[in-house]
């Protein structure tokens, strides 16, 4: 209906393409991929004719069609469309921009899927270096991306060996690899639950007073268990974190949440109060205590 209204309105084709793009995304979400592809082919042809070569709407349409081609299993045509979108974005924003990095990563992922690992590694290097320069090395997106690339390094070493610019670069320093304590801890939770993770943590720690696993990793895996209706196991991990990082207000807050989920109100109250002792500005702790009918 919107498409008909716009077409009748006269300044039509550009706005009509916006509606078609949206319709194609809906169809794709419904797994009606071929219908989405047919619409996007028309949109891209029209946008190529109507829009300037640095118009980001053209890049968006190319990107959408590339995603559909990927869903159809047409990897090389998808790469070609991403590369065209990349040219548009570079013309619009210059060589270094988050959008440029994102498309480089999309192409790199497809090259990896086609087992063209050296090309993929070069593209991922360029994209990640660009992201670090723009966002900073400790931005959450960078940390998550580099941690995930620990697996990428492992796979590439097994697949092709030799020099890997990204895997061997300085920007990977300090991030978890596939055999790091934090990665092993996460794997233990996924494969064996809280008991396996606690046993591994004890083994890794040995006689050391410091924790071999980062506070955030333990907390994240606790919440993964909590989201998957395994509150008892989540409390085990949250409890471990209070032993490893007793001065962190956040670990006591998380333990309080786990206990509250289990229905252990008395213990939850005690842990939220400990969190507030360490951080009086913890508004979440205050709200949870009020929710349980007690004053902070």
Task: Show the helix and strand layout.
Layout: H1 2-9, H2 12-29, H3 33-50, H4 56-71, H5 75-93, H6 98-113, H7 117-135, H8 140-159, H9 181-205, H10 215-227, H11 231-244, H12 249-262, H13 265-278, H14 283-291
Helix pairs in contact: 1-2, 2-3, 3-4, 4-5, 5-6, 6-7, 7-8, 9-10, 9-11, 10-11, 10-12, 11-12, 12-13, 13-14
Please describe the structure with a list of short key phrases separated by commas or semicolons.
elongated; single chain; disordered N terminus; mainly alpha; 296 residues
Strand content: under 5%
Distance between the termini: 55 Å
* Shape designation: elongated
Total strand segments:
0
> What is the radius of gyration computed over CA atoms, rounded to a whole number of angstroms?
25 Å
Largest sheet: none
Helix/sheet category = mainly alpha
- Annotation field: number of helices: 14
The chain-level mean pLDDT equals: 82
Q: Helical amount among residues, as a percent range?
A: over 70%
**Uncertain parts:** 1-10, 171-178
Structural commentary:
- The protein is mostly helical and 296 residues long.
- 75% of the residues lie in helices and 0% in strands.
- It has 14 helices and no strands.
- α3 (33-50) packs antiparallel against α4 (56-71), α9 crosses α10 and α9 crosses α11 (231-244).
- The longest helix has 25 residues, at 181-205.
